[in-house]
Each structure stands twice: as structure tokens, then as C-alpha cells.
Amino acid sequence: MAQRLALHRLLSLPARGSLASQGRAFGTSAGRRSTFNVQDGSDFQDRVVNSPKPVVVDFHAQWCGPCKILGPRLEKLVSKLEGKVLMAKVDIDDHTDLAIEYEVSAVPTVLAMKNGDVVDKFVGVKDEDQLEAFLKKLIGA
């Protein structure tokens, strides 16, 4: 309990120093609010399927090398859109039911969802230009 309290206090401190100067503030920047980890099926339903904003869903796994390349690249581009699109991260090992429901057969798999429907999808790593085009198509820009 004491460790949790100490961690909570640490995470609630205002960002300072080199991290803040690089635009990586803890928990309060638009980029952090627009990217989240899915906790369970109910959370997915509430924050993805019922979202009024378009959502990019990144199905990934801790052991997946390409996922470690794609995830940060996609997060960076989503944060640049300043809340026009959200990004949900789904670990397939923790949420096998969601991976099966959305027919994820390889990781990384990225879905573009609007109004609860899958409107676009890709599998594998993409470069920044391809990701930008994917996101622009999703938000209609």
C-alpha cells in the first residue's frame, strides 16, 4: 500500500525538467489523453465502440518486435492530431477475446473505427507517411 501511495504521488507531480521541455508531460498532455490502454471488454465498449471520435485500435503484444516500432510511431502521430482521433492499445495476450472478435490473426494489427464500425485496417509496420495517410483518411482530412 505504501508503494502504491508513493507511486501515485510521483505520478501526480507536475512534469519538470528535460521531459517537460521535450513535450512529454506526465498524464496531462493532449497526446496522453488521446492514447489509452484497454482494460477489459466493457472498457473497450465504452471508450472505443461508443466513442464520438474516431479511434485507432492498436492490437499488439509485449513479445512482438514490430509492435515496439509501430506503437510509438503511431502514438506520436495521433498526439499531433490534438484530440481529433483517439488511440486504444489492446494487448492480445491480455484480451484474447477482443482479438478473436476483431479477427486479429497477426500483430501488429491496427483498426480504424468510426461510430463503432471498423472502416479501415492494416497489418504490420508502416512508415510515417503511410500512417499519416491512414489517419487523415480516418478523420476525413
Helix and strand arrangement:
Elements: H1 2-12, H2 17-21, H3 30-34, E1 35-37, H4 41-49, E2 55-60, H5 65-80, E3 86-91, H6 96-101, E4 109-114, E5 117-123, H7 128-139
Parallel strand pairs: 1-3, 2-3
Antiparallel strand pairs: 2-4, 4-5
CATH class: Alpha Beta
From the coordinates shown, what is the CATH architecture? 3-Layer(aba) Sandwich
What order do the helices and strands follow?
HHHEHEHEHEEH
CATH-defined superfamily = Glutaredoxin
Number of helices: 7
Give the domain tally: 1
Helix share bin: 40-55%
For the largest sheet, list the strands in their spatial order.
1-3-2-4-5
Assembly type of the chains comes to single chain
Q: Can you summarize the main beta sheet?
A: 5 strands, mixed
Number of strands: 5
Shape: globular
- Tell me the distance between the termini: 47 Å
CATH fold naming? Glutaredoxin
**Whole-number mean pLDDT:** 84
Query: In terms of structural class, how would the helical and strand content be classed?
Result: alpha/beta
DSSP strand content: 15-25%
Quick gist of this model?
The chain is an alpha/beta fold. Helix content is 45%, strand content 20%. It has a single domain, classed as Glutaredoxin (3-Layer(aba) Sandwich), CATH 3.40.30.10.
